[in-house]
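Sample entry follows:

:::
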Amino acid sequence: MTQTSAAAIDLEAFMGSIGARIDGFFYRCRNASDYSMVWVSDGFTGLTECDADDFVRNRRSYADLIHPDDLASVNEAVASALATNGRWQLLYRIRSKRDGWRFVHETGGGAAPDPETGEARYLDGVILEAERVTALAEKLQSGQAAAKSIDASIEAVYAALKMLRLLALNARIEAAHASQHGAGFGVVAREMASLADSGETAMRAMGDQLQRLKHAIRI
């Protein structure tokens, strides 16, 4: 694209057109801990569920929308990029009234350096909805709940097997007391003990697999 044709573009219309085609928004915010916005594109309200005009006019804190567990890593990445005049790329969660938390991907960098200090006065960038990551997180949460439920069930089965062993022991004692008349008790006792042994082996193998699953989904 030549310089002449670039200058002929209506930048406001261009930004509006691009903004309407992305699931997210462009921004300029203050280089401050609250990341208060001074300008956002049209997609801001759709992604954050906050009124864009109110957010900018009243200098509301974008940091307040970021998940508390993610804010420190966001701050660290921004500070590191500013220190090297580089850019940051982040994946983190923001609060959603409808969905609880949703993942977003942000790319940004410092802008408008102070003439005296050289420190960036603003941060410019784009924040996009990471819909697939949000869906994956929901599936992982569902998997975590299922794994915990299975874990509880395994504990219940172990308790039942312990009771079965106790019953088998009692059956053996009764068989010994009844002498030849207790042969049937002896057979039942052996079968019960065998069942408890095989059940415990199966439960142990299942427990090992469950531990691997829990580690994979970080319970």
In short: The mean pLDDT is 78. The beta strands are 24-30, 37-40, 87-96, 100-113, 120-129.
